[in-house]
Design a protein that fits this description.
The chain is mainly alpha-helical. The chain has 19 helices and four strands. A two-stranded antiparallel sheet has the order 1-2. A two-stranded antiparallel ribbon has the order 3-4.
């Protein structure tokens, strides 16, 4: 089997071999992959400040304008596991660079757009870049000394939350003071910088699985996932009982079942479902859905509470910029807690970090039910949620990698990222429905009531509690094969995964 350069998979060129003789700067590698992850995550919230103006800016209808957000979500969910599998096969660094090129091209297209169709195309290409986070985590496993691995994995994994929380106020500041196209020119510059850094700093991937790419599996996976995500994200617009929504939901589920049957029978599957069904992997992925739900709840509900007018007796009357800054501490605590979470995982096991993260999230939303009347209340809730998500995001890649072979790291981490995105999508649908179902009118605008906000916080707390229970069920100790994706230690005569 040969790769796209017509040479045997895993065989390096003379130039690549020479590059491998250079001493690696591990700090530079960690910085580069974390920076790349931040940029990819930033793209997800890039247009948030201009969403209300998109119909006028792009000369389109409000319903069509929502595709600017939906297209990015779908592209990220589909491309992440596919790029992970390609990374395992042809080299993770190479696929990271491909994704960054797509992100850069998408940013340029969006920056030059004044109509809806090219903007959607640009946003699709930007969405594909989210796969660099899962690939970055897998690269760390391949190149770092074990003593640095835990903290680095925790940091790069957390960039999914850090990038959105820290990037939102930057987007809001630009949108309020400059032409909106500047947002995408900034994205272009950041993508170009990341591409240069990855090319010059990250070493060539030497661990490659070979085999053939599962094109039928990729197509079936994309069709099934698109059907479900479209039904969930557009259900409130199309009507939850409409034929279109139900058809998308049921059809997507049927296609995914067929995909699962096909994956179990093919020699080189897109996702090895036998590995994904292992108890540790399955429970971690299920818990990831709840963490994604809980994290998105703070990003979706708190800004509405902060920006709602005070005339309703519920809102805090703040600007978008202030609301964005109120969420920034959430991203900052994720950044600063990543080494703490890594040390806890090394000492007590990643399962402990995931459980602690879930507990913090439950506490945050329990407090939120009664703390909704001051700006500092929202800052407190966002910060505590950030602490919980930081611990959880730090634990999940380690839990995944200790249970899968080294040849499956990128694909397995990619699937885990999809689970987080699925949780966020479900949160957007469920919480959006709750907020829209109980409103008061202020100056001609429907504003959610206090009970609607409280119900959202209660739902988020219940979901986080379910995730905590799932984390408790993850095995504390389990046998690990000699091909485990992270280092193992010997205890008695039995190999045991590092916990």
């Amino acid at each position: 089997m040969t790769d796209p350069e017509n040479r045997p998979s895993g065989i390096l060129t003379a130039r690549e071999k020479k590059r491998l003789t250079r001493p690696e700067n591990e700090r530079a590698i960690i910085f580069t992959l974390a920076f790349t992850g931040l940029i990819a995550a930033f793209m997800q919230t890039l247009v948030t400040p201009i969403v209300p103006q998109l119909p006028q800016l792009l000369n389109t209808s409000p319903s069509d304008a929502t595709w600017v957000l939906t297209a990015t979500l779908l592209a990220a969910a589909i491309s992440t596991p596919i790029s992970g599998r390609l990374g395992d096969m042809y080299g993770k660094r190479r696929i990271v660079m491909v994704l960054l090129v797509l992100l850069l091209v998408g940013s340029v297209i969006s920056a030059l757009s004044n109509e809806i169709l090219p903007m959607i195309l640009g946003r699709v290409l930007q969405g594909t870049g989210l796969g660099v986070i899962a690939l970055g985590v897998s690269i760390l496993r391949d190149v770092l000394h074990p003593k640095r691995l835990g903290g680095a994995v925790a940091l790069v994994s957390a960039t999914l939350g850090i990038g959105g929380a820290v990037g939102l106020p930057i987007s809001a500041l630009i949108a309020q003071n400059l032409d909106w196209h500047v947002l995408f020119w900034l994205a272009t510059a950041l993508a170009a910088l990341a591409l240069v850094l990855v090319y010059t700093v990250v070493p060539v991937s030497t661990l490659r699985t070979g085999g053939s790419f599962d094109y039928p599996g990729a197509v079936l996976f994309a069709i099934g996932l698109v059907g479900i995500l479209l039904a969930v994200s557009k259900g409130s617009e199309w009507g939850w009982g409409s034929l279109l929504t139900l058809g998308m939901l049921v059809g997507g589920a049927v296609v995914l079942v067929l995909w699962g049957v096909y994956e179990l029978r093919t020699e080189n599957p897109l996702v090895d479902l036998r590995i994904a069904a292992r108890r540790a992997v399955l429970l971690t992925n299920l818990a990831s859905i709840t963490v994604g739900f809980a994290f998105f709840a703070s990003a979706a509900v708190l800004p509405q509470l902060l920006e709602a007018p005070t005339t309703t007796g519920v809102g805090l009357g703040q600007t978008l910029l202030v609301a964005s800054l109120a969420l920034t501490p959430s991203g900052l605590v994720m950044f600063f807690l990543s080494p703490v979470a890594a040390r806890l995982s090394a000492a007590r096991g990643p399962r402990t970090s995931l459980v602690i993260g879930g507990v913090f999230i439950v506490i945050a939303y329990a407090l939120a039910i009664g703390l909704m009347t001051e700006v500092w209340h929202a800052v407190l809730i966002a910060t505590v949620v950030g602490i919980g998500v930081g611990f959880a995001y730090a634990a999940m890649p380690t839990l995944i990698m200790r249970a899968v072979p080294a040849s499956e790291t990128a694909a397995a981490n990619g699937l885990n990222s999809v689970m987080r995105s699925l949780g966020s999508t479900v949160a957007a649908a469920v919480l959006g429905l709750v907020l829209a179902s109980s409103t008061v009118v202020s100056n001609g605008h429907a504003i959610p009531t206090a009970s609607a906000f409280q119900l959202c916080f209660l739902i988020a707390a219940v979901v986080a509690l379910a995730g905590t229970v799932l984390a408790f069920l993850i095995p504390r100790h389990e046998p690990a094969s000699s091909t485990a994706s992270i280092p193992v230690v010997q205890k008695s005569s039995e190999p045991v995964a590092v916990n």
